[in-house]
Each structure stands twice: as structure tokens, then as C-alpha cells.
Amino acid sequence: MKASFFICLGMIVVLGGILRFWRLSEYPVALSADEVSIGYSSFSVLKTAHDEYGSFLPLAFRSAGDYKPPVLGYLMVPSIAIFGLNEFGVRFPIALAGSVAIIFVGLLTYELFGNKLISLVTTLSVAISPWHIKFSRGSFEAVLASLFLIAGVWTFLLGLRYRGKLFWLSGILMALAMWTYHAERLMVPLFATALFVIFHKEIGKLKRAVLVMAIATGVVLAPLVYLLTTQGGTARFSSVFIGRDVAIQSELHKTEKNQNAIQTLLDNNALTLFNFWSKRYLNYWDLGFIFFNGMGLTGPGEPDVGLFHLVEIVPFLIGLAVLLLGRSGLDRRRKRLVVVWLLLGPLAASLANNDQHPLRSLTAIPAPQILVGIGVFWLWGWFRTKTKLARRVFVAVSAGLMVSALLYYLDLYYNHAPIRFSEFDGYGLKQAAIYAIQNHNLFKEVVFDPTFGTLGPFTESLPHLYILFYSQYDPWRYQRDLRRIEYGGSSNFANFNFRPIYWPKDRYLKDRLFIGSPWSLPKNDLLGFGQILQTIPFKNGASGFVIVRTSE
Amino acid sequence: MGLIAFYGIMRLIWPGDKSLRLWAILVFAINPWLVFLSRTVSAVTLQLHFLLIVLWVILIFYKRGIRWLAIIVASLMVIFYGSVAFVYVRAPAAKTDFTRNYLGFFSDLAIQNGIDRLRGESEQSGDRLVGKLFFNKSYYMVALAEKSLEQLKPQLYFAAGEGNPLHGLSEFGPILIVFLPLLLIGLQSFFGGSFGSKRKILMTTLFFLAVIPSILGGTSFNQEKTIFVFPLLAILLGNAAKNLKGRWLVVFLLFLVFNMAYVLYDAIVKEPYRAQYAWEFGTKSLAAKIARYKDKYDKVFIADKYSPDVGVQLLFYLNSARVYYPFSYRPWVDQIDNITIGQVDRWQVTDGEKVLFVVTSSRQVSVSDTWVLDMKDNRQKIICSSPIEQVVDLRNIPIYLFFDSTNCTREALP
Hints:
The complex is a heterodimer. By secondary structure, chain A is an alpha+beta fold.
């Protein structure tokens, strides 16, 4: 590889890094409940080696009604130790993983095709990808798992070149991917099998390296296999499996007993689920989702952005045609690897209970971006037969379109999405939590209503986590707090009480600090009973939270 | 007839490829898309069959060297379509109908609202220039591209369809999913060169022409309006299927039979339950019962919350009994002889009149043995002892309830 390749790769990585780190603490405009949950768990592990539930170095981090894979939680420990328990400290590991992934995409695609143009364009496509940027700026394990998978495939291909020397590392990286995110637990075994089938000739000659790889992978995976037999390992699967989707419930039989032979054959739950799944899976092959509206940064039917920038559609489709028609001069087996990656990418997401889920389908990266790379490579080959001026025009137009597409995306991300979705990001909970932390000693009790929203109290969060997070509440104290009461996903502790406010009754409670939405603390109903201390608006200007005190 | 014409066209265009013709006709014959629409009164589907027949006739004359006859048939078709178009534009509200149903995209308020909303947000965030640059009328081009590309979504053709029980099976795509792998193979051989370049250009052009009504129609995907794509897809799939040999052929046929059986079972046994309200099941029974009762009462009042235009359906069934009832139409059929449909605010019952109330279940509330007809529009509450008759759906849930006014008392609402 020439130095020019690395210089270009470096520039792309820097660009990708800037897009992932610029104003990371401020955008997204608030930490989500998942972020504060995993952040406080890591803080707790840092201080006490136990999570907030008192589990010693857990294999799965317990969260509200769920268990989170452990890798991100442990990676967050050094980050929080260095940067503190704040937005940057929580988001840093994933933003870093997202930036590092760009490097591995470059290395992987070069190893795959040995073509600098394909590699650099694919890398650029990932670096500026609305899909990858958005999730790299939040604490989403999927980005980290994707990095492990990409690095694992790269080391596997390197292993093929160097007689299996890096197979063990590939196995460990892929196993780590499985440890990191649920979708990879399905994706990786299938993809690894496909790799073995595609490259069976080379692998057949490297039996010893494969054995070492199997042992290394087995050692890393053994605890995970054990975990998958416990509640911490199965909770997520059972809660998000496609069969739990409300859209299919009316079609499923409660019991399949007493059916005749024809019904057993043609009207069974397995077939119904397969039929439903096929709709979900094929819906990931929707160009509207991929290029026009997949990111959901605006409301339905409004100008939006897809997983890719719209300008990438031409090379994407050309790349797809080239990949399927086999006129690229690229190695057939390596193309098969890309096809398999494309097909398996949305599989895990399609088996879960939401349609067109961009986060869960991150497993596909970088396969679709490789199509863009191949498409540009093909286009460039075509322009090479044209005049120098035509080539320059092509480059200038492409660059201009790319810059404008990026500006469009950044405008949506930094200007529009916060206005539209600040309440769904949990905006306002931080300000409310800080007020409560600073003043809770002045009151007998602080009552925090977890429901809020512009159009009605339809959004529910976990405010106790925000109190713990922003007060950096002593984990030892929290783990041993005798007043702590767990219910549902919430937890009461100290003099904090997290429950719905019912003002007609609650207004008679003396010496209380109430934090809730205007839906539970209506302004016209406060007179004589409560005094508004502070109002916290959402980014769209609507009243988000009202802080009210009752008289002593 | 459309099937025969399609086979005839294939025979003339691909004279040496019998297996392609047979596979294509099989695809054409068994898929839910055309099977369903051919069993309904679909003007678009009729047009497809008509075009296929005319095209076949033209091709026969053309291939046999009788070009003047081919030209005459083609001219007749142009005259026919011209006449239809002329009659259509002369019809009242033709322009409104055309712009709403065929050019709905350009009057889609959601697009303009989306642009305005984002411009407003740009003002709010202080980036007016960016808002002006990105959110303007040019977005219509983006929206048009989006709608166009949506027509290529495999999910719509092979798994989900439009989901409208009036245009197809609500749980299945218009083409059996077992054909999906064949589409990929078919596309590969289509772009890979097994079709001549002229055929390729012709088929690609026809495809885009065929999806235009669905794109410009306003709705995202219209399974009925897209039916013209189907012959092209049948050719693509047939071209892929003809290369199946040996065990692959056996496996494919087994899957095909199973897929057909699965869809057929669902269509016959389960779909009627799902789609009964969209199909307005029960209206025939309603008409039969009203025909039986109408002459026994001075007035029949139907409070309709079930069918969008029950009057037309009643006319169809009542008049089919060779009795012509006078009716009024403003702006829908609201009066047939002594039957008043809708217009609850105009229900007047004078003392001594015998009236039959026919109400949908959403209009009544059962309180032990009495039934309260909620007539808020008429500022009155009618309390009846029990229905004398009812029309039920397939699950035996009442759709229409018949009440005799002699069993009812009226109370004025404040």
C-alpha cells in the first residue's frame, strides 16, 4: 500500500472523527435513559466493583426491565474515570469506536479487493454516513459490536494471506462482537459459517490455525453460552422477538391443539411468523428507507435523510448491478462475502419486533457502503475513457453534491431533530434533576413524575437514573439504602419519590417539591396550593417540566 | 382471455422459446395479483386484458404481413380510447376526479406542509438561509424520486402488497414469495444479456410507464394501478424459471405447490374474516331483510356508520328483484322509496306512524334488556326494548339492528 492511500485514509478518518466528536456533549441534546443507566452502572463498578444492584462485576448489566451486554459498560469505566460522569464521558467510548471503525473499514475493503479507490470511497461513505454518525454519537453498543465484527473479518482475511496466523484474533474479535450486542449473537455465527464455506479451500489447508481459533473463540464465548441460559441472557430475546410484535398477535393461535391435518399444515404459527418475518426482512430493501427517510430526523412525510445520503444512490445501484452481474473484474469469492454480508445484515433486525430499525441493522455495515465504492470505481472506469475535462467535471460535481448532502444532513441533525425530538431524547430531565439535587434537602419529599410530553404525558422515562447520574450519588450508599424501594423500572431512594402526580389529591401534601409536566401540574389549578419555582421548556418551546413547591 | 392473449403475444415475440412461454403463462395464471383482481369489477384489470388482446391481434396481423389490418386495429383502439377520454372529460367533476386520483401527487398537502414546517424550524433555529436553500419547491423532485423508487420495493411485490383487501389479499404480496429468488436470477439474466437490447429497452420503458399511475396517484403504492407491470414481471420470472433443471426444479415445484396451498387456504378460510368490513359483508343480507320489511312500515330509517354508500348497494339488491323503486341522490343516494338513509337530523316520526329503525351497532348501547339508540345528531334518545331482526358479521357480531318503533320510546336530549 502506498503512502498516498494512508494519507487519504487518515484524512477521511479525521473527517469522520470530527463528525462524531464535534459538540458531542451537546448533541444529542440530552442523555437517554439507556445512557444514564449504563453510565451510572459503570460509575458504580468504577467505585465499588459492583453495579447499582449490588452484583459483583456482572456479566450482564441489569437495567430497567432489561439486561445489557457488558462490554460497553466495562469500556465506559476508564472513560468515566478520565472524563468524569458526564455526557462526554458516557459518549466517548462509542464515538471513539465509530471513528476507529472507519480505519478498519478502509483496511478491510483494501484487503478484500486490493483496490484503493473502492477502499477509500467505501471508507468515506462510512465516515460521512448519516446512519453511522447518528449512532456513534450516542451510547449504542451496536456501533462497538460492528467495529469488532469488521475488525474480525479483516483479521480473518489477513489470516488467509498469512497462513492462518491471525485466525485466533479474528475469532476473539468476533466473539467480542457477540458479547457486545444482541444482533451480533445471531449474525456472527451465521456469517462465520458463510466465511468458512466461501473460503473452505484455503481454510482446509490451515487446520492447526483453525483449531487455535476455535479454542480462543470457545474460551471467550463459554461464559456467554452460560449467560444465555440465565435470565440476563434471555430477557432481551424474549422481550423483542418478532412473535411479541402487536401487529402479528391477532394472527397467531393461542393454542394449536384440536386442529385438523390441513390446519396443522397450512395454518400454524410457524408459517404465520415466517410470512410476517418475510415482510419485515424485505422491508429493509426499501430504497425509500435507505435513501430518503430511514433516519427519522423529521416527522413522517417531511424532508428527511436515509441511512445514506441521497447522492449515493447512483453509485449504490451501479455497485449492486456490478456485484450481481459480475462485470467488475473483482474476485468472485470476495464478492460473495459482500453479498452474504448484505443478506445477513438486516436478518437479526428483521427478527425483532420493530419494522425498519436502523440501529439493529447496523450489522450490515460496511457491506452497503462497499456497493457505493464499487459503483464509484465503475463510474471512474467509465470516465477514464472520456476527456480530462469530463473527469474533472465528474470529480467536481461529485464533491459538490457530497458537501451539500453533508450540509443538509448536519442541518437536520443539529437544527431540526433537536426541535422536533428533544422531549423524546429526555431533554429537560437533566435540568430538573439538577434542581432536585440542589434543593431536595429543603423539603420533606421530592415527587418526580416520570411522564411528560408536548401533546400529552405520553413519554415515560426513568428520572431516578438522572438524579443518580447528575448527583454522582455514592454507589455504596445507593446499594445499601434501606429506604430504596424498587418497583417496575423505577426506584425510590433518600427522600426522592418517583411516581405519577395526581394533583387533586397531592396538593394537600405539605412541604413537598413536585416535578412534573404541565399535564400533571396544571398552572390554573396550582393557585393557593403550589408555587411554581421553575419551568423547563422543551426545544420546541412547549413547557416540558414544571417545578412546584407546596407550603410547609 | 387475457391469459390466452398473453400466451399468444409471447409466442409471437419469443417463437423459439416454448419453456419461457409456458413458465411466464404459469406465473401469469396462478399469482394472487391477477387472480384476485380478475374476480372483482376492476376497470384497470379489464383494461390490461383488453390491451393484451388488442396487442395480440395487432401482432398477428403484423407478423403475417397484413400491416394495413394491424394499422386499422391500432387506429380503432386509438379511436376507442379517444372516445373514452372524451366522454370522461365531459363528465361532471372529471377534472377533480382526474387530478385527485391520477395526479394526486401534485396536490399532496403533506409535501407542501413538510417544506413549510422545516422552513419554520429553520427560522426558529436562526438558520434562515439554510432553510431557504434546502426546503423549497425542489423537494417535489425528491418526493417524486422517492415515490418512483418505492415502486421497486421487493416487499410490496412478494410479501406485503398494498395491504388493501379491495386490491388484493391483505396478508400476502401480489406475487407468491417462492418466486422471489427467481426474480434475482431473472434480473441477472435480463441485465446480463439473455434478452436482446431492443427487448431490454422496450421492457424497461414499459415498466416505468406502467408504474407512473401508481407514482402520480398520490398513494404510496397502488396494487391495482400497478397491474400493468405484471406481464413484464411474469416474463422475467418465466425466463429465470425455464433454466431450472433436475432437483432444483423439483424443489421449486414442491415449494410452489405448498406456497399456493398456503395462500389459497388463507384466502378462502381466513381472509373473509379479516376483510369482511372492507368488503362490506352483510349488505346483501341487509337488503334482503329490508325488502322483506319495508312495505310493512310507513318509514324505514337507516343510520349508517358501516358502509360508505349503502344506498347504492341497496339499490343494486332491491332493484335486482325487478321492482323499481324511486330514489333521490343528493349528493349520495339518501332516499329510496320510503327508506331514508343517514340524515339522522331529519328523522321525523309523527304519532301513529309505524317506523323501522335500522342502526349500526355503533349507534346503540345495550343496557340489560333495553337498547338505547344514540341519536345525538337529532337531539333525541330512542329507547327500544329489543331488536326484531339483525344482520351479523362472520363472527356473529351484529352489524345492523332492526327496531320496531312500537317497541320504542323517545326522549328529547337537552
